[in-house]
Amino acid sequence: MWLYYLLFAWMCYLNFIANRPGSRLSGKVQFFLSVLPAVAISAFRGVGVGTDTEQYITAVGLLDSLGYDEYMSLGMYGDYEPGFILLLKLCTFFPDPAFALICISSLLIFGVQYYVLYKTSANPGSSYFLYFLGTMYYFGLTGMRQALAVSFVMMAFMCLDRNDGTRAVLWTGLAITFHYTALIFVPLLLVSRVNPSKKIWLTMGVAIAVLILVAPLSPILFTVIGKYNGYVKYGGEYLVSGRMMPIIQITFFGYMLYAYQCAINHLKLKDGSREVMFANIGVYSSFLGVLVGIVTMEVNLFYRFMYFLIPIQCITLSTIFKGDLSRKMKLIKGVAYAAFVLLFIAFLFVDSGWFGINQYALYWN
């Protein structure tokens, strides 16, 4: 794990240098110095570094040896979303399909995600910092298929920032073809420009209360969906050692919801500005995060929705809480950053099986 900590320390050092008075370290140089080692560590990793990665390496090997038609008859492997299967097929044209899959996915995951942080955040260095603390880098090493979908959702977010709704919809559609959980971004597409009124806050509160009551019924829905039945069957087993994670999720996103509410109420955000849109999407993504945490108490599958929401927090938090802030807003910002630190610390104490990250090894070992 020391290599990941070195990467984090390197990003912290770059951020320190960039924020020094008179620093000549430009945002573009900081981006490249941050993203290149992140991509390289991922691209050259061994198959066993991430448990999900092992499954996808098996899949691309089967597709290469059996051909498309026979591969699609294999059940679980043939049930992958069409966009991901197309990527697997592309990798079979390389001499080493497994290595090609790891390299291409690493570039698409970390290259794209760091790029969006760089292009959309008012303080990219801080966003890189929060991105790592939010366990996004670790997740990208194992949850390949969903992490690819996260990249495309982040591209959709960047299009929203540029008032390009059409491309935002297209990127979201592409994300869904890699992992169906990307559907969680659809409501954010619809409400990103809607300012949360008192009525909306009340509605969100009622929705949280109702979900707490009906969440125990959620496993029934998944028992009728063959693809996800395994999460229900084994979800309890996964949650035994990590039962605190859903509670941590709820607490984390609950505080973020409060922080964005304070930002909307106390900061002088100009109507129609990107800061207002970021604050809105920060509120609604935090609300969804609380809902996800509640349902994760019952069905293990839902915790993965969190990984579409954390990058949004990394961008919006750094963009909204900037400049000359009052003492109260500085405190709220500081606690929000501390929440990311606590999330990362909690991750360190969770059973490794929850995230599926093993000791780092090179591909050729």
Calculate the terminal CA-CA distance, rounded to whole Å.
16 Å
Mean pLDDT: 88
Oligomeric state:
single chain
Largest sheet: none
- What's the domain count? 1
Number of helices: 19
Task: Give the CA-based shape.
Answer: globular
Q: Stretches where pLDDT falls below 50 for ≥5 residues?
A: 238-242
Approximate helicity band:
over 70%
What string gives the helices and strands in order?
HHHHHHHHHHHHHHHHHHH
Q: What structural category characterises the helix and strand content?
A: mainly alpha
Q: Proportion of β residues?
A: under 5%
- Tell how many strands the DSSP assignment holds: 0
Organism: Collinsella intestinalis
Transmembrane segments: 98-117, 129-157, 169-190, 202-225, 245-264, 276-295, 301-323, 335-357
Pfam families: EpsG (PF14897)
InterPro entries: EpsG-like (IPR049458)
A few lines on this structure:
With 365 residues, the protein is mostly helical.
List its traits.
73% helix, globular, 19 helices, 0% strand
Structure description:
The structure is a single chain. With 365 residues, the protein is mostly helical. The protein has one domain. The chain has 19 helices and no strands. Helix 9 runs antiparallel to helix 10 and helix 12 runs parallel beside helix 16. The longest helix has 24 residues. It is globular, with a radius of gyration of 20 Å. Pfam families: EpsG. This is EpsG family protein. InterPro entries: EpsG-like.
Protein topology:
Elements: H1 2-18, H2 27-43, H3 51-66, H4 68-72, H5 82-91, H6 97-120, H7 124-133, H8 136-142, H9 144-161, H10 165-176, H11 186-191, H12 198-214, H13 218-223, H14 229-240, H15 244-266, H16 274-296, H17 306-320, H18 327-349, H19 352-355
Organism: Collinsella intestinalis
Transmembrane segments: 98-117, 129-157, 169-190, 202-225, 245-264, 276-295, 301-323, 335-357
Keywords: Membrane, Transmembrane, Transmembrane helix
